[in-house]
Amino acid sequence: PTSKSPVLAVSAANVGTVYAVTPAGIETTLHAFQGGADGATPWGGLLNVGGVLYGTTYGGGDTRGDGTLFSMTLAGAKTVLHTFVRGNDGAAPVGSLVKSGNTLYGTTAAGGNGTDCGGPTAGCGTVFKVNHKDVYSQMYRFNLQDADQPLGTMLPFNGELYGTSFNGGEDINNSLGTLFKVTKDGTETVLHSFGTGVDGADPVGGLINVDGTFYGPTESGGAHEFGTVFSVTPAGVETVIHDFTRM
After folding, report:
1. What CA dihedral angle connects 162, 168, 174 and 179, to 10 degrees?
2. How confident is the model at residue 175, as a pLDDT?
3. Does the pLDDT value for residue 1 go beyond 60?
4. Does residue 172 register a pLDDT over 80?
5. Three-state secondary structure string covering the chain
6. Which pLDDT does position 12 carry in this prediction?
7. How far apart are alpha carbons 149 and 172 in whole angstroms?
8. Among 119, 130, 162, 181, which residue has the fewest nearby CB atoms (within 10 Å)?
9. Nearest partner of 29 among 76, 79, 72, 96, judged by Cα
């Protein structure tokens, strides 16, 4: 989804691993991804829920490589819970999963709605959930005016989910990213569209919560076009608090 690629752990198939490491630096490989149905290229982190690890792979899965959702024991026994298949389904999960209540939530950077956003995995992305029985279901399909390519991990806050998208926005001719909120019944609201004046543009990372105010970065935009750090309230009042400059 962007020109930047993560540094991947190397497996026999060269598509990533799940590993454990002790505080003393002793590393153990729990699983080496094999591509195909097993999944490939994990980007997001792992979420530990009662001693079971949950994660996603950006690639692998079906023959088109739209990604997977998996669980794994601490001993390395892995189960694929869902294979993404683009179209109305999601594709290319990038951000990590989050837990709120007894449910896990995540996003895909593509798939969902194949009419608004182009690219090889046509679609603007989705929000999905996994219940306490490890059953996957889709919550929301983004369109270009509310979000395109949600890359960062969502932030649960007061029973709702907050996130950013790399592209998209209410002005489709100025598609520079959004801040959005999704309720647990699947209702989505755009809180802020980036790119007006010296505002930031193209947020990549997720949000953090500090005393009820959210903070995050943008990859570009700002007074010098090298990105920003911003704050935003749950009501959507956004403020640029730092403009990056090239040194």
Report:
1. 0
2. 87
3. no
4. no
5. CCCCCCCCCCCCCCCCEEEEECCCCCEEEEEECCCHHHCECCCCCCEEECCEEEEEECECCCCCCCCEEEEEECCCCEEEEEECCCCCCEECCCCCCEEECCEEEEEECEECCCCCCCCCCCCCCEEEEECCCCCEEEEEECCCCCCECCCCCCEEECCEEEEEECECCCCCCCCCCEEEEEECCCCEEEEEECCCCCCEECCCCCCEEECCEEEEEECEECCCCCCEEEEECCCCCEEEEEECCCC
6. 52
7. 14
8. 119
9. 76
Angle at the Cα of 27 from the Cα atoms of 23 and 28, rounded to 5 degrees: 130
Tokens of 222: 């700002």
Q: Using one digit for the tens of pLDDT, what is the confidence trace for 118-156?
A: 766 679 999 999 999 999 999 999 998 889 999 999 999
Question: In this predicted model, what pLDDT tens digit does every residue of 55-106 receive, in sequence order?
Answer: 999 999 988 899 999 999 999 999 999 999 988 899 999 999 999 999 999 9
Is the model's pLDDT at 4 over the cut of 50?
Answer: no
CA distances from 167 to 15, 48, 110, 219, 229 (A): 27, 30, 11, 11, 17
Any idea which residue has 């590393």 for tokens? 27
Rounded CA separation 87/200 (Å): 31
Which residues are bridge partners to 98 per DSSP? 105
The pLDDT of residue 92 is: 95
Amino acid identity of 30? L
- C-alpha 17/C-alpha 19 separation (Å) is 6
Tell me the average pLDDT across 148-176. Answer: 92
